[in-house]
Specification:
about 120 residues, alpha+beta, Aspartate Aminotransferase, domain 1, 4 helices, globular, YdhG-like
């Protein structure tokens, strides 16, 4: 979590900060092999040098970026969880709970799907 300390310190809204700390802590515990890092001024997690999932803070939501393939694969479940999404982002409203089981599926999907990936982003 130290990797994210400066990023988290820059978040003024204490509820948003607490939500991120909860999500990041859960990811670190659930996926101990993922590497937390800051890139492009955003917190993210990587596996063997390839991007797995990233996050950003917006006024009305937590943006989750698992790359387009992950969003396409889980689009129905994302909508069923009550979130909307674009081609690249899932928007989790700050007043909604974070569906950790869905997040777990998305992360696991990316880990498996990118197991042989040698680039940061999918080609």
């Amino acid at each position: 979590m130290e990797v994210f300390a400066e990023y988290l310190a820059g978040i003024d809204n204490l509820q948003h900060k607490a939500r991120l700390e909860e999500v990041f802590g859960w990811i670190i515990k659930t996926f101990p092999n993922l590497i937390p890092k800051i890139a492009w001024n955003q917190p993210m997690f990587t596996d063997h040098g390839t991007f797995i999932i990233g996050f950003s803070v917006a006024k009305h939501h937590l943006a989750v970026a698992p790359e387009r393939v992950g969003i396409d694969h889980f689009s129905g479940e994302i909508v069923q969880a009550g979130y909307n999404h674009s081609k690249e982002l899932i928007r989790i409203p700050w007043d909604s709970h974070v569906d950790l089981s869905l997040l777990e599926k998305i992360i696991q999907f990316n880990i498996l799907d990118k197991a042989e990936c040698s680039t940061f982003w999918r080609k």
